[in-house]
Specification:
Blueprint lengths: L7 E5 L3 H23 L11 H23 L3 H4 L2 E6 L2 E5 L5 E11 L4 E7 L3 E7 L1 H18 L3
Antiparallel strand pairs: 1-2, 2-3, 3-4, 4-5, 5-6
Length: 153
């Protein structure tokens, strides 16, 4: 007898660990970028001239502003709340506002603590959703792993 999954349906909540990891990565990029801008090699014995200092300051401010924007505008797939229903290669995410994102699915990443799924919505375009045990809960994570093993995502 062949075992087949009927599908997967579960509530999505915000995963604070995933958002903390996103913030930590953005801050690590800011630190690395700051070191590159301010510690770039200079000729030995040369004083820092005013134009060089202005150029470095402008580059640092522009890159810092861009990273601040990235930090404030997290990817929607990290913090989206709603209800996920997934079966037979199609999924739908019903948002609390009543809107929905639906389409064909493709598994991008499947690890022990993270599953990445892309939904190709005709209207909204490609949308990537990142699922973790903390977003789905213990029971939901177990059901997702069972669905991915037995079903045909």
């Amino acid at each position: 007898m062949e075992r087949v999954s009927e599908g997967f349906s579960e509530r999505l909540v915000v995963d604070r660990w995933l958002l903390a990891a996103w913030s930590a990565l953005v801050l690590a990029v800011w630190l690395a970028m700051s070191l590159v801008v301010w510690q770039a090699p200079r000729p030995v014995g040369a004083d820092t001239s005013l134009p060089e200092w202005l150029w470095r300051s402008a580059a640092w401010l522009v890159l810092s502003g861009w990273l601040w924007r990235c930090l404030r505008h997290r990817p929607a797939g990290f913090s989206l709340e709603g209800r996920l229903a997934w079966s037979a290669g199609r999924a739908e995410v019903l948002l609390p506002s009543g809107e929905s994102i639906r389409g064909e699915t493709r598994v991008l990443w499947q690890g022990p603590l993270l599953v990445g799924v892309t939904l190709d919505d005709a209207g909204a375009g490609r949308f990537t959703l990142w699922l973790t045990p903390w977003r789905l809960g213990r029971r939901g994570w177990w059901r997702l792993q069972r669905f991915l093993t037995l079903g045909s995502p």
